[in-house]
Amino acid sequence: MPLSFDPDAIPLPTSHFVDGAYLPAEGVLPMRRPSDARDYAACPVADADLIDHAVHAAKSALKTSGWASRRPRERTNAMHRWADLIEAEAETLARLEAVSSTRPIGQLIQGDVAVTAEQIRFFAEFADKEGSDLVPTGEEGLGMVMSEPYGVVGAITPWNFPLSMAGWKLGPALAAGNAIVLKPSEMTPFSTLYVAELAVRAGIPAGLINIVLGDGPTTGQAITAHPEISKVSFTGSTAAGSAIMANIARTGVKPMTLELGGKSPQIVFADADLPLAADAIANSILGNAGQACVAGSRVIVENAVLEPLILALKANMASIRPGPTWDAASTYSPIISERQLNRIDGITRAAVDAGAECLTGGHRLDRKGYFYAPTLLSGVAATSPAVTEEIFGPVLTVQSFHDEDEALALADHPTYGLAAGLFTRDLSRAIRVTRKLQAGTVWVNRYSRSRDHILPTGGYKHSGIGKDLGREAYHANRKSKSVLINL
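Request: output the structure for the sequence above.
Response:
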């Protein structure tokens, strides 16, 4: 079957998935395809009553299925069957994701869909390998730290990588013995709905995964405030993360994992492998058109190699193949909405008006949909929003430095600390600089996540609290109880 497809021929699930079934729902929020700017569907909005229904379905499913108390390997095996179905239904999932999102179909089957299946398998294996611990106490006692699931957890995922972000939340929650109520973005819900349907087909009890559609102010707020949701996990903007923290504080106390915004630096030293650095930097901002929280949007380069690096970056940026996400030949993504495209363009133009030089790009592409040219800015003031704000688009700023201390000073951001990259052949420098960078993830001589799901991800400063991926994500879905027994 060819990868390219007709977006109007794809049947779309546009209702909530609760207790193992789709619920009839009226579409309220208009949905517009970023590839051609066409309205094509409407998303319903789950209110507090529907969230309450989903939470009660989750609690009932936990009780009747005994999911948390099953032999751990049973949870593992069920999740492996789920991953098998995700792989078997890769083309369907890829089409459901491509039709509404910014993800080109050619990158989805071997990329996002395969990674999601890997994540489910990765977390499945924790179910029978991580548990309670005996701890040293006096001879007259026996000390234990017992590990238990929270029960019902809530999750909210973003629009930029809908399926793999759902995997970040669903995998550890289910493996740890919980049920989950998850809200995908109202702009890109379809692949998440279908992957929940596949879980039921794989034998995971109905009601353990509930997908509710809606916006942040109504649906998201109802999830985070619900008294019977014991833990919340969110990936999205820092502003939205702050609102979630405030909402939780107003309505009670519960743990949360927040993976938030970033304005990540990439430091290039004069001894770096420049072709490697240029490829990595360009890919980090061209991938998904820069619409990633870890996008390495600030290039900080040693003066001696400033010009050759700029030339290499411009060449990389000229190689894009923009096109609809449902065309297998497309490799360059649209921007998610006209509002976001205008924001990107506004920040870029303001930087140029204030004295920055636009070396390439800086304009909307002349084609259907919301496409923005890869943009490289130099001579940008340190206080410019192009340097300080998360643009969430294909815009790189270039700053230069004389020595290591200056590079670190430029790299440090007063607000964000999600990720950072550095390029050097000097191992001692790599370790020294890595220790000083204020970021939750540091990549050396690369700039991208690998498929080593054991590596956690999360930020410093306002870029988040807690970790996704890794064993940390599994443990974040368990609570501990201290036990001391007199013998």
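The first strand starts at residue 16 and ends at 18.
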